[in-house]
Amino acid sequence: MLDMVIMMGLQGSGKSTFCATHYPDYTRINLDTLRTRKKEHDALWQALNQKENIIIDNTNPTKADRNKYIQAGREQKYKIIGCFMQSRLQDCRERNNARTGKEKIPEIAISCTANKLELPYYDEGFDELYYVKITDAGFTATLCRETGIVEE
Predict the structure, then answer these.
(1) Which residues pair with 54 in a beta bridge?
(2) Keyword annotations for this protein (predicted)?
(3) Which residues of 22-61 are buried (b: 16+ CB within 10 A; e: fewer)?
(4) Domain spans in the chain, listed from the N-terminal domain onward
(5) What separation, in Å, do the N-terminal and C-terminal C-alpha atoms of the chain show?
């Protein structure tokens, strides 16, 4: 079965770095890179039709944001894996402030995303759901039980 990994989390939470280190061979769908929803949609469906493992590297802060990917993946019989980046708002701001050029985003964008952030749950359609933290040793991913309780 093919994988569709859906990243979730604030800007600066480490999503893209996690993608690069843990899923380097997956086709990465990223709105920032593709620039328009049309190009993103086309890239997603091209990857789905070519039967590629896919990682959606966007903030996906709400259930509605995630649903369009989950439905597309389900339609094509993909295993749906969610990775929620657990990160403090202040840490995300600090990582963003260390960025330069186009990678640095307005601080208001991080605050807006934080204000609408909804925790993910299995009942959205995930087959697996992980909560990921950045630690001194790198990333720690913890599998979430179907009840929404994080297994330690």
Answers:
(1) 4, 27
(2) Kinase, Transferase
(3) ebeebbbbbbeebeeeeebeebbeebbeeeebbbbbbbbb
(4) 3-143
(5) 27
> Which stretch of DSSP H or E encloses residue 63?
helix 63-75
| 68-113 per-position pLDDT tens digit | 999 999 999 999 999 999 999 999 999 999 999 888 989 999 999 9
Burial class (CB in 10 A: 0-12, 13-18, 19+), 129: buried
Query: Mind listing the pLDDT tens digit for each residue in 111-143?
Result: 999 999 999 999 999 999 999 999 888 999 999
Query: What letter represents residue 126's amino acid?
Result: F
pLDDT recorded at residue 149 = 52
Whole-prediction pTM: 0.92
CB 19 within 8 A of CB 9: no
